[in-house]
Every structure is written in structure tokens, then in C-alpha cells.
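Let's practice the habit of predicting before peeking. Look at the sequence and jot down your guess about where helices and strands might fall. Then scroll down.
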Amino acid sequence: MALEGGVPVVFLVAAYAILLFAFSVTARRDPLQKMAFLSVSFLLVHSLVDYPLRTAALAMTFAYMSGVIFHKGLAERLSMKKLCR
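Done guessing? Here is the structure:
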């Protein structure tokens, strides 16, 4: 990707990796976000040896799981449920 996209792609991939690591620290409370983090991590590791994100099904799974990881409303709802108990 770096050879085809150049510096902008390297910057975007690095920014995504930093954001993913930062949200992984806060995702320890929610099992759904943990599962999404593991799914995205598996796809990224698999991308080192193959091109799985070329297929529409895996690209959509990657996008959906990224949305679950970075969704802030999920953590707020969980904290509200704990307060109501």
C-alpha cells in the first residue's frame, strides 16, 4: 500500500493503528468492543500475508467492526445500565 499510495497512505494507516491501540485500552470494559477489536486485529494480521480486504465481505466486516470499536455511545449506555442497577 505504501508503494502505491505514498506518504498519505502511510500517514492514514499509522493514524488508524494509533487510534485502534488507543481505543483498545478503553474497550476492555465491553465484551462486544473486545470482540470487534480481536476481529479487526485478526484481519490486519491476515493482511500481512494476503489481501483479504479485497473481498467485499471481509471489507464490510472490517468496516462494521471498526464502527463498533470507535462507537462512543456504547460505553455511555453501559455506564447508564450500571447506574440503574
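How did you do? The first helix runs from residue 2 to 5.
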